[in-house]
Amino acid sequence: SFSSTSARNAIKNVTVIGGGLMGSGIAQVAAQTGHNVTLVDVSSDILKKSQENIAVSLTRVAKKLYKDKPADGEKFINDSKSRLKIDTDASSAVKDADLVVEAIVENLEIKHKLFRTLDEAAPSKTIFASNTSSLGIGDIASVTKRTDRFGGLHFFNPVPVMKLLEVVRTHDTSEETYQAMMEWGKAMGKVCITCKDTPGFVVNRLLVPYIAEAIRMYERGDASARDIDTAMKLGAGYPMGPLELADYVGHDTSHFIIEGWHKKFPDNPLFVPNESVKKLIQEGKLGVKTGEGFYKYKK
Ligand code: NAI
Q1: Is the C-beta atom of 103 inside 6 A of ligand 1?
Q2: What is the chain's mean pLDDT, rounded?
Q3: Is it the case that residue 266 has pLDDT exceeding 70?
Q4: 131 close to ligand 1 (CB < 6 Angstrom)
């Protein structure tokens, strides 16, 4: 029956590789929701930083969840922390893993190197997933011998706050693997959507060209940056305008994504990088994080 299948396949032990912005968030939420988590990065110094960031974020979550019950909040923090281990050796960290979520640097060669190693080290039951934003899941999985037990689990920043999880199936992802990923997503408290392994999945496939088109409008001088943003906020009900959003995401990040797609799909006009963004990057104006992009920000 379905319930016995799901019980058998329930994901309990999760290894997260990459303790940066995304990996820390994924590890935190997994620990919060009762999973045994091992967080892996290349050095103990980085992992110490990850643990500090997770501790700050857990405190924030506890304050919200247990507003009038500080003792319960304290227990929530301690229980979550007790479920979270750190390790600098990826091979040993996947030995008991039901699921590995990769959130390392966005570089296909480096991800391949990691997954070759993990494929050797992990038991055959272990499901592999990548949190990549812009690379193909099938392209990443291709170096492993478990392409049927490989899928995409694409989270959004900040992971503890954003409700969405995109669950990505490749041609090879098995039904069992897909079901296990969906169930884990729900257990993580996320709202899961399913999509195929196409560039940008759903959210970024729509958002990246939309932002680029808004920037092209600004480049042509059809309207000011402020007016484009005001128009989309008040006329389309978006919480942020497209240029504000571009500044918030960071021009280096979105340019890296669209440049990658443009190289891979040169004929798609939606994936043409913006000249004004290249100029902003050259000037070091990456957006909110550097104090200036299309707008100026107080640092
Ligand atoms: P980050 O730069 O904050 O963190 C990456 C971490 O991976 C670093 O701590 C680095 O030391 C570690 N790392 C690099 N190579 C490693 C290896 N071989 N083994 C173990 N650790 C290694 O990057 P971020 O923003 O967390 O992104 C990670 C992944 O998540 C990327 O694939 C990105 O496309 C994806 N992503 C990013 C989002 C974002 O808003 N930043 C949103 C959704 C997905």
Answers
A1: yes
A2: 96
A3: yes
A4: yes
Q: Is the CB of 105 under 6 A from ligand 1?
A: yes
- First CA to last CA across the chain, in angstroms? 57
What mean pLDDT is predicted for residues 103-132?
98
CATH class of the domain at 2-196: alpha beta
250 — alpha (psi -120 to 50), left (phi > 0) or beta?
left
How far does the centroid of ligand 1 lie from the alpha carbon of residue 41, in Å? 10
Helix (H) or strand (E) holding 153: strand 150-154
Which of 132, 128, 156 is closest to 25 using CA atoms?
156
Instruction: Confirm or deny that 57 is annotated as ligand binding.
Output: yes
The answer on pLDDT for 213 being more than 90 is yes
Determine whether 62 is exposed, middle or buried from the number of CB atoms within 10 Å of its CB (0-12, 13-18, 19+). buried
Residue whose CB lies within 8 A of the most ligand 1 atoms, among 54, 118, 133, for a mutation test:
133
Task: Read off the pLDDT of residues 227-252 as tens digits, 9 standing for 90 and up.
Answer: 999 999 999 999 999 999 999 999 99
Q: Whose CA is nearest to atom 12 of ligand 1?
A: 18
Active site residue 183: no
Structure confidence by residue, pLDDT tens digits, 136-186: 999 999 999 999 999 999 999 999 999 999 999 999 999 999 999 999 999
Residue-wise pLDDT for 26-85, tens only, equals 999 999 999 999 999 999 999 999 999 999 999 999 999 999 999 999 999 999 999 999
- In the chain, domain spans: 2-196, 204-287
Tell me the chain's radius of gyration from C-alpha atoms. Answer: 20
Is residue 13 marked as binding?
no
- Domain topology for 204-287: N-(1-d-carboxylethyl)-l-norvaline Dehydrogenase; domain 2 (1.10.1040)
The residue from 50, 130, 134, 204 that is catalytic is 204
CA-based angle 271:164:42, to the nearest 5?
Answer: 80
Ligand 1 atom at shortest distance from the alpha carbon of 134: 34
Q: Of the residues 24, 134, 154, 244, which is catalytic?
A: 154
